[in-house]
Amino acid sequence: MDPVLQLESVESGYGEVQVLWGISFEVERGSFTTILGTNGAGKTTTLRTIMGSLRAWKGRVLLHGEDITRLSPHAKADRGLVLVPEGRQLFPDMSVRENLEMGGYSKRARKRQKQNMERVYDMFPRLQERHQQKSSTLSGGEQQMLAMGRGLMQEAEVLMIDELSLGLAPVAAQQLFLTLSSLRKEGLTVVLVEQNVHLALAISDYTYVFAEGRISIRGDSDDVARMDEVRRAYLGL
Ligand SMILES: Nc1ncnc2c1ncn2[C@@H]1O[C@H](COP(=O)(O)OP(=O)(O)O)[C@@H](O)[C@H]1O
Ligand SMILES: [Mg+2]
User: Fold this and answer.
1) Alpha carbon distance 186, 121 (integer Å)
2) For 136-170, what is each residue's pLDDT tens digit?
3) What would the pLDDT profile of 103-149 be if each residue is shown by its tens digit?
4) Does residue 40 line the site of ligand 1, with CB under 6 A?
5) Rounded to two decimals, what is the model's pTM?
6) Whole domain around residue 104: which residue ranges?
7) What residues are neighbours of ligand 2 (ion), with CB under 5 Å?
8) What CATH number should be reported for the domain holding residue 208?
9) Radius of gyration, alpha carbons of the chain
10) Residues 227 and 164 in one domain
11) Which residue from 71, 125, 144, 212 has the least number of CB within 10 angstroms?
């Protein structure tokens, strides 16, 4: 095990309300990890706490073994930790190209902005065809491509995506999963929060299931997919 990202007993919440009650997990370098859980289980809160837009009350976040808990989101992004947030948060009035450029200004990626943009366009020809179009006029699937592309412009080493397939047509979701899968083969580490449990369990290596701010199940995705509890609660079997 060569963990790139580790959480050690992370607790956090909003105001006085505690949401996470000691989250510990490891993400192996180059792996594809899925986080499942019902609404309100604390998945988004976990990603925000990892990224640092929400402060960890207790515990540590490690990147390559280095304690990054208290670094700013900006400093974390400069180390290759990138979050595609729920709802994508694109700049609606900017073009596809301009949105991609916004991802490419970091200190980490500035020098290679041109190559990175070519790489994104190779991966998503649809974005190249629409490079002058305002992002608000793209389809849901195209917007998610753009949000992922922006993350890749930041030269993500660990790409965390919150609700990749939410609101997308099944075909669009499947295509994005396959793209992620191929990126993983190029060395990207993927952490995905997902409601499409079938697809997520089929494609990912490792799965964590969250319940009420804690991890209730962890294991290889193949094994998790066979658990009675998971089959009943998530797969409708
Ligand atoms: N900005 C916020 N302020 C207060 N409570 C929040 C906020 N965001 C989420 N919560 C609460 O934290 C809990 C976990 O939410 P969240 O992490 O978004 O769950 P998930 O992503 O698993 O659906 C929920 O009870 C939710 O109501
Ligand atoms: Mg969420």
Assistant:
1) 16
2) 999 999 999 999 999 999 999 999 999 999 989 99
3) 888 888 899 999 999 999 999 999 999 999 999 999 999 999 999 99
4) yes
5) 0.95
6) 86-155
7) 43-44
8) 3.40.50.300
9) 17
10) yes
11) 125
